[in-house]
Amino acid sequence: MNIINLTKETRVDLLESLLKRSPNQYSEYEKTVSEIVETVRRKKDEALLSYTEKFDHICLTPETMRVTKEEIEEAYREVDPRLVEVIRKALVNIRSYHEKQKRYSWFDSKENGILLGQKITPLQKVGVYVPGGKAVYPSSVLMNVVPAKVAGVGQIVMTTPCRGGKVSPNTLVAANEAGVDVIFKVGGAQAIAALAHGTETIPKVDKIVGPGNIFVALAKKAVYGFTGIDSIAGPSEIMVLADETANPRYVAADLLSQAEHDELASAILVTTSRTLAEAVSKEIEGFLKTLSRADIIAKSMDNYGYILLVDSMAEGINVVDEIAPEHLEIVTSNPFDAMTRVHNAGAIFLGPYSSEPLGDYFAGPNHILPTNGTARFFSPLSVDDFVKKSSVIYYSEEALRAVHREIESFAQAEELTAHANSIAVRFEKED
């Protein structure tokens, strides 16, 4: 990896390079995606099945589109029982973490017959998209489904591409363990369109969550407004903030753990130590000779892999906040202190033994995270994403009488006389 002394100029170039990875930069695909979405909206199952045959080379019918109980049972026979046990242990951790995020309705009774409150209502139907192209991610099934279940969502509908007419057994087992209600063997932009608008077979949902390729991301962008979405996810990214105390072998391994996702993944080390920087670069070269996805990793590191030298930890934290990484590892002499000064990061991992894959699979916090700098204003997927909040207002006659003139004057100041009249009409006999 190239070691760069960070300056104003290199910082600008770096940010521009990283932003090129955003789904918002792929406008050339938007027309194609819009056509797919609109065709599925109009022709429903007919278009959905046609696109599945065209793009995935799978010939399905409305009947075979849905995963059967027998297919799930077969998946359990094919999956290593040890993996099933790991999935179940991970589920315990993920549920426990998300249970602490639950919100409850509240009501506040005041004097003179006033009741104010907030009513929490789970979404009725949620669609979960699970990738199934270059790789399959049963861990993403758990991370999308568990907070929805904890929130109390009525029905969870999952779509995922299949290979040769068959969904990955690992994905099916994860979905069944997490509590998915129904699974369909369709993917891509056409699956997002089906979830957003509904077809004869796939129900229309209130919200769509889950990562996918650029076509999935753009399809979610296109259907937003017809249905809710979690976010428009970009390629994966990791940043490690480290000083001279960090173990270079650990740091190198952690950087590569995200670079193997795809060629657009970003891996960045920010450090105050040139010695560490040089050692990490050397370790990366060694790992590349042994890892199975070395070709993907090499392209990712060539395009979006950086080692940035900064003069101080304060400058390093400024870089973190400017890039707002999806995953941030802090490997310094006092990582807890550095963490308190960081404002923008999706998930923060502290110390040498909190490697990023711990969060991907097992610890409990959600791994569906804001990417492409959106950690400046977005949060990880949570129970909050699967509930709605309704405000509740009750005023007695006496309570409204005490303030009606103030409300009327406010409405008149905005020249909204019908608003003022709506209040005044209740007390016109008294005036």
Topology:
Elements lengths: L2 E3 L2 H12 L10 H14 L1 H12 L12 H10 L2 H19 L6 E5 L3 E9 L2 E5 L8 H14 L3 E5 L9 H10 L3 E3 L3 H10 L9 E3 L4 H10 L4 E2 L7 E6 L5 H12 L6 E6 L2 H15 L5 H11 E5 L3 H11 L3 E5 L3 H7 L5 E4 L5 H6 L25 E9 L1 H17 L3 H8 L7
Parallel strand pairs: 1-11, 4-5, 4-7, 5-6, 7-8, 9-10, 9-12, 10-11, 12-13
Antiparallel strand pairs: 2-3, 3-14
Helix pairs in contact: 2-3, 2-8, 2-9, 3-8, 4-7, 5-6, 5-7, 6-7, 8-9, 10-11, 16-17
Report on the architecture of this protein.
There is one protein chain. The protein has 431 residues and is of the alpha/beta class. It folds into 3 domains: 3-21 and 235-353, 3-Layer(aba) Sandwich (Rossmann fold), CATH 3.40.50; 27-229, Rossmann fold (3-Layer(aba) Sandwich), CATH 3.40.50; 396-427, no CATH class. Helices cover 46% and strands 16% of the residues. The protein is built from 17 helices and 14 strands. It has a 6-stranded parallel β-sheet, with helices on both faces. Helix 10 (248-259) links the parallel strand 9 and strand 10 (266-271). Helix 3 (45-56) runs antiparallel to helix 8 and helix 5 packs parallel to helix 6 (138-151). The radius of gyration is 25 Å and the shape is globular.
Query: Structural class of the helix and strand makeup?
Result: alpha/beta
The coarse overall form would be globular
CATH topology descriptor of the largest domain: Rossmann fold
Mean pLDDT: 92
Helical stretch tally: 17
Radius of gyration: 25 Å
The main sheet comes to:
6 strands, parallel
Helix proportion range: 40-55%
Low-confidence segments, given as residue ranges, are: none
Number of strands: 14
Q: How widely separated are the two ends?
A: 80 Å
Strand content: 15-25%
Question: What name goes with the CATH superfamily of the largest domain?
Answer: Nitrogenase molybdenum iron protein domain
* Spatial arrangement of strands, main beta sheet: 1-11-10-9-12-13
Proper CATH architecture of the largest domain: 3-Layer(aba) Sandwich
